Amino acid sequence: MDLEFDQKHVWHPYTSTISPLKCYPASSAKGVHIELEDGRQLIDGMSSWWSAIHGYNHPTLNEAAHAQIDRMSHVMFGGITHQPAIDLCKSLVEMTPKGLEQVFLADSGSVAVEVSLKMALQYWHAKGEKRSKFLTLRDGYHGDTFAAMSVTDPDNSMHSLYKGFLPEHIFATSPNTGFWDNWNPEDIEDLEHKLEHNHKEVAAVILEPIVQGAGGMRIYHPEYLKRVRKLCDQYGLLLILDEIATGFGRTGKLFACEHAEVVPDILCVGKALTGGYMTLSATITTKHVADTVCSGEAGCFMHGPTFMGNPLACAVASASMSLLKQGNWKSQTHNIESSFARLLPALLQNERVRDVRWLGAIGVVETKQPVNMEAIQKRFVEQGVWIRPFGKLIYMMPPFISEAHHIKRLIDAIAQVITEDDCFLD
Ligand SMILES: *Cc1c(COP(=O)(O)O)cnc(C)c1O
User: Fold this and answer.
1) pTM passes above 0.85
2) 123 labelled ligand-binding
3) Where do the TM regions start and end (predicted)?
4) Are 69 and 84 spatial neighbours (Cβ–Cβ below 8 Å)?
5) Fewest CB atoms within 10 A around its CB: which of 54, 164, 333, 394?
């Protein structure tokens, strides 16, 4: 591969053109393995950012893609419908918590979040109330487009760069009680106060249920989410749950909100929706919210991307939902969680490690110093694994099909790099 061209002209996520880091050339992927151009096989610990839950190159998903591309890769969704979209939406209505029954298909996670915020704004407009604020949590992550970024942690996403353009929303302190800890009622106080003072201008509360992903890999207590739902009900506010990272089994439940038995008014899904094959997302809401939105001045929901409901993506997503419905994800994520519980605590003996935590198929090692990305990435690859940390977080969300010996290889590799000084910045 022409890596020189790549380094010179191709912009990778969150990278500098002044000092671009070298990327590793992948030539194929199968099961839990990513194959590099030189033939090395890496055990994947990332599921390509939460998405490849069934592993790569899956025969069922391949077959769905092949069958659909020979029939019709795309057709506009305005005025036309098709079987892959109907099949997928049927699965989504069936699998998501009861009451969520109106599906809006979108292009990516960030767009699903944009759509959810627009739904909430149109909802209140239709009710004749002017509400334009969202309440969300510190340390959250909801995407890179402007509205999604406006409810993402202001420091992590550097709101200061976009001041004057970016809408300003209300941020409550993120929950501190871990998933496995005893619930501390003080956790909810800040959000409670902020709602008490601002509820009349708030359209909705938006947050990631149970696991705050890219904003800090924080795994919090279900009671927090229960309280948030109660407060939303008390003030008549909409609750938007962003399950783009947590959805489809990742936390050991099909949706993370099930840990708290909470049902949102609007749910965002993406990432694993197509099993990591292509980009597709969905925003799913209740009949009440949808009908209220459509009873307003516009008479409809004001959104409709060109590639909405792309049949190829829907066909693969639908096949991915069928794989989930077979139910193996339950024992698979349970087994991965057991491996994490068995192997992660030993890492605490290394003085570089501040904390280890896990839930379902998510495992996190938080270090005291930030990683040296270039050095640590190289050492992981040398050990035959693909793990991409950020800041002080070395984290894993492996494909569900990973076996105990794969998880052990990932954790052994982490155990090794945390002993190496040049993998960390001071
Ligand atoms: C990744 C992510 C998004 C954004 O999805 P993209 O497909 O990258 O636009 C939004 N919310 C959460 C919780 C995510 O993890």
Assistant:
1) yes
2) no
3) none
4) no
5) 164
